[in-house]
């Protein structure tokens, strides 16, 4: 028997104890005449107990314990006959591979080295999903707050949360940022965060000074509007400084923190989320993630990234808005929300933070698709409002209130100058040509 046809490598899904395996699903491309069975087995062996050539130490006992198992190979299209085969084009198939999680236990870096390690250098291979059994997830605590905890903390039981990131993105002093913070907060913004491009303790905006200035602005705004403002200070830094940044930020008064997860790694996020001394919500920014996810044929999917963010403790996670600045596909946008929202054993939900060129005219579209359990993330849509950032925040609250009451926002704008100015400047998604607003896609 050909070794790479060995049935021990190809059990049915029904023939393995699923609680012992993490299942990876890949999109794989090969030559038109590729032997998919052999190629699949070679991939499984490469990423688990063996190598490209038989080695004496890979005994049957080692293979039984640690070899990955192929539980599905599906050609796309699903050819049956030789006559149907393409002659000179790449042939794609879906591969489902079950990895014994005893190989990597709760070690996220080692898991990634397993499921998308050496094989990530191959052309035409993308990890599109990971499925985790309850036995594996029991090792993780997930978000401290989740959607319900954040709503309770902020006393916002039903409507979408309005988030604002300070603009300009970077280069501003704590005093300059605090002034922008105050105007956005007093207009009704619920949660304000550092931009992803200002983090840690740069010389022009030291961490503790920034936190103290911004929280003072929050206190002043909260007293006027009668609502709480959450501030997520970006503690992203070299990993050796990450925990200390979080501690210093919280000691200075920060009521939430943020990390750029692809910069610090999933384990950096997990370290903060599972630290009992860090008792504030954690926002996750996904900048740089596109380097891993955006290729249709390489890397890994946004859905996989979102699962790992949720498992590792992100209370809120950025999801790029559809048909806005970065033109995310609608189905990707919706599926990423599903992964943060849907039941995952004991792991709390992760709030989807929708950002990237959002204006009040997109609010009806977002709420129509995802409902009200979302965070609407806004930068220039508040700070670039023609009547100023306070009016920009007011316009978003007006748009949300109109949708919650079933009122068309164009109708609501007739008696609300802030919303009217926003619509005049940027339009309404689905009515006006939204893509005209952005130069990035031009």
UniProtKB/TrEMBL annotation:
Give the taxonomic lineage as stored in the record. Bacteria, Bacillati, Bacillota, Negativicutes, Selenomonadales
Principal EC category: isomerase
Q: Which GO terms describe its molecular function?
A: 2,3-diketo-5-methylthiopentyl-1-phosphate enolase activity
Q: What is this protein called?
A: 2,3-diketo-5-methylthiopentyl-1-phosphate enolase
Q: Which residues form the Ribulose bisphosphate carboxylase large subunit C-terminal domain?
A: 146-426
Ribulose bisphosphate carboxylase large subunit ferrodoxin-like N-terminal domain residues: 18-136
Q: Which Pfam families match?
A: RuBisCO_large, RuBisCO_large_N
Give the record's keywords alphabetically: Isomerase
Q: Which superkingdom is the protein from?
A: Bacteria
InterPro entries listed in its UniProt record: RuBisCO, RuBisCO_lsu_C, RuBisCO_lsu_C_sf, RuBisCO_lsu_fd_N, RuBisCO_lsu_N_sf
- EC no.? 5.3.2.5
Q: Which family does it belong to?
A: Belongs to the RuBisCO large chain family.
């Amino acid at each position: 028997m050909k070794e790479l046809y060995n049935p021990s490598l190809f059990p049915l899904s029904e023939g393995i104890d699923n609680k012992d395996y993490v299942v990876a699903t890949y999109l794989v491309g090969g030559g038109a005449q590729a032997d998919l069975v052999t190629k699949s087995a070679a991939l499984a062996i490469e990423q688990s107990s063996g190598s490209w050539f038989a080695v004496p130490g890979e005994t049957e006992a080692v293979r039984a314990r640690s070899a990955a198992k192929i539980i599905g190979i599906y050609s796309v299209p699903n050819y049956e006959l030789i006559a149907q085969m393409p002659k000179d084009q790449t042939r794609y198939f879906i591969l489902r591979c079950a990895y014994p999680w005893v190989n990597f236990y709760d070690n996220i870096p080692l898991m990634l080295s397993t499921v998308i390690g050496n094989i990530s250098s191959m052309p035409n291979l993308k990890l599109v999903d990971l499925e985790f059994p309850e036995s594996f997830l029991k090792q993780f605590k997930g978000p401290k707050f989740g959607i319900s905890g954040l709503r309770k903390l902020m006393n916002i039981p039903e409507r979408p949360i309005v988030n604002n990131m300070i603009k300009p993105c970077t280069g501003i002093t704590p005093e300059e940022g605090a002034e922008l913070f105050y105007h956005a907060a007093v207009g009704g913004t619920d949660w304000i965060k550092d931009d992803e491009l200002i983090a840690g303790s740069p010389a022009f905006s030291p961490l503790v000074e920034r936190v103290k200035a911004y929280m003072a602005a929050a206190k002043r705004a909260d007293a006027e509007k009668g609502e709480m403002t959450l501030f997520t200070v970006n503690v992203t830094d070299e990993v050796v400084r990450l925990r200390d940044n979080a501690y210093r930020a919280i000691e200075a008064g920060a009521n939430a923190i943020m990390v750029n997860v692809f910069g610090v790694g999933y384990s950096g996020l997990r370290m903060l989320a599972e630290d009992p001394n860090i008792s504030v919500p954690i926002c996750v920014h996904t900048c740089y993630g596109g380097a891993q996810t955006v290729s249709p044929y390489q890397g890994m999917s946004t859905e996989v990234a979102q699962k790992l963010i949720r498992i590792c403790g992100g209370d809120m996670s950025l999801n790029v808005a559809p048909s806005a600045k970065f033109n995310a596909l609608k189905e990707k946008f919706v599926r990423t929300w599903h992964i943060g929202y849907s039941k995952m054993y004991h792991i709390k939900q992760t709030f989807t933070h929708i950002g990237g060129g959002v204006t009040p005219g997109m609010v009806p579209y977002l709420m129509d698709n995802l409902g009200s359990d979302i965070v609407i993330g806004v930068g220039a849509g508040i700070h670039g409002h023609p009547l100023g950032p306070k009016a920009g925040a007011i316009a978003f609250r007006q748009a949300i209130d109109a949708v919650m009451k079933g009122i068309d926002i164009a109708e609501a704008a007739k008696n609300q100058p802030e919303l009217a100015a926003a619509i005049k400047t940027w339009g309404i998604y689905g009515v006006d040509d939204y893509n005209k607003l952005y130069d990035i896609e031009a």
